[in-house]
Design goal:
alpha/beta; 10 strands; binds 4-methyl-5-hydroxyethylthiazole phosphate; binds magnesium ion; two-stranded antiparallel sheet; transferase; metal-binding; TIM Barrel; ThiamineP_synth_TenI; single chain; eight-stranded parallel barrel; about 375 residues; binds the ligand Cc1ncc(COP(=O)(O)OP(=O)(O)O)c(N)n1; 14 helices
Length: about 375
């Protein structure tokens, strides 16, 4: 027998008449239950994100931000909201989506939980206004903090992966574009740039979309050469800009703080300027003259050595590098290299990728470097 039927059992088990809930009380009870469930949901989602920031990334700032929001949510979770809970009568506890049981990566797990937290906060914002106007306002602000946290966390992960990428494939036009890139990804490649100077934008956009999907399936970074608009259109991880391309400051305005911007450099001045302008990495070369960039004079191994001693951001030696000379480039100080023909024209792109990586991985990380690496490994991402 329910209380709304105007009867209830007293403590001696005797049926007594009771005042029916007013419509207002009924409505409040429903609101309390919604708030109770969504406060739990938002805190659980934040806790899942927090654990990755803490144990996966060792990042105190991101961990602290999650914890701060969880504590603020707890302060809204008052006894009257908790006491409205009716787990047995809640039909939603049985419902799960098949995707909840299938997380393919940390990235998809985090994205799903960011979604869950944002949804819960939106519910708390809307229903919270009916409970206490301050709750609506507080939850709105917190929802924006979650968007910022998501963007910071995803940007941080992206930059960590850049630091851990020692081989960079820059593509050249071919009918087998996806096939070759996938073969290299299978060999362990984690950084790809789409470069095609002579194709219609419609095709460029299509190719870029396919490549982005492929790279993200393999948890690799995907960069677009020259074109900020295409990078934004396909939601790429960043853009590579040469000295004749868009200024870094303008690209940064379009791309925001978390996407990667690379800059080509051929000499010390260009290197210093790129660092000052906020490049996330630089290309260093051409180390050797190369038909891929015809007419461009080689910067040589001297420039590689100079950069090795003076550069404070990640850098990739590029231009004419192949399996026969990669050790000369490494000996000159390179820890990271970028190649076009070395992989795009290889008979066995997977094997050659593995070979390049095996040579580059022989070099120990430099403990004096000003950029810090966390204990996060890309294959976990
Ligand atoms: C990693 C990397 N380094 C250098 C370049 C060359 O860029 P740019 O000088 O703009 O020449 P194009 O590639 O646009 O012909 C690069 N693409 N990637
Ligand atoms: C795009 C670019 N920028 C400097 S050298 C170069 C081309 C490198 O191509 P390859 O690896 O085939 O020599
Ligand atoms: Mg360019």
């Amino acid at each position: 027998m329910k209380r709304t039927d105007c009867y209830d059992l007293n403590t001696n088990g005797i049926v007594v008449m009771v005042e029916p809930y007013s419509q207002r009380e009924q409505r409040n009870l429903v609101i309390y239950r919604i708030l109770d469930a969504n406060l739990d949901r938002a805190r659980e989602g934040l806790r899942i994100i927090e654990e990755w920031c803490r144990f996966g990334l060792n990042n105190a700032q991101l961990t602290g931000e999650c914890k701060g929001m969880r504590q603020e949510l707890a302060s809204w979770h008052t006894a009257d909201l908790r006491s409205a809970r009716d787990t047995l009568g809640d039909p939603g506890t049985e419902l799960t989506h098949p995707q909840e049981e299938q997380r393919t990566s940390i990235k998809s797990l985090l994205q799903a939980n960011f979604c869950r937290v944002q949804e819960a906060m939106r519910v708390l914002e809307e229903y919270g206004k009916l409970y206490n106007p301050n709750m609506g306002k507080a939850l709105k602000q917190m929802r924006y903090r979650v968007y910022t946290l998501e963007s910071n966390l995803m940007g941080y992960q992206r930059h960590q992966l850049l630091l851990r990428s020692h081989l960079y494939l820059v593509t050249s036009p071919t009918d087998k574009l996806l096939e070759i890139v996938e073969a290299a990804l299978k060999g362990g490649l984690t950084l790809v740039q789409y470069r095609d100077k002579n194709v219609d934008d419609a095709v460029r956009l299509q190719q870029a979309q396919k490549l982005r999907q492929l790279c993200h399936n393999y948890n690799a970074i995907f960069i677009i050469n020259d074109r900020v608009d295409i990078a934004l259109a396909v939601d790429a991880d960043g853009v590579h800009l040469g000295q004749q391309d868009m200024p870094i400051a303008v690209a940064r305005q379009w791309l925001g703080p978390h996407r990667i911007i690379g800059r080509s450099t051929t000499n010390a001045d260009e290197m210093q300027r790129a660092i000052k302008e906020g490049a996330d990495y630089i290309g260093v070369g051409p180390v050797y003259e190369t038909p891929t960039k015809e007419g461009k004079p080689a910067a040589g191994l001297e420039y590689v050595s100079y950069v090795a001693k003076n550069c404070s951001i990640p850098w990739f030696a590029i231009g004419g590098i192949d399996p026969n000379n990669i050790n000369d480039v490494i000996d000159a100080g390179a820890k990271r290299v970028a190649v076009v023909r070395g992989i795009m024209q290889a008979e066995q792109p997977t094997l050659v990728t593995q070979y390049f990586l095996s040579q580059l991985n022989r070099i120990q990380p430099d403990p004096d470097h000003s950029y810090v690496e966390s204990n996060y490994y890309p294959d976990q991402w």
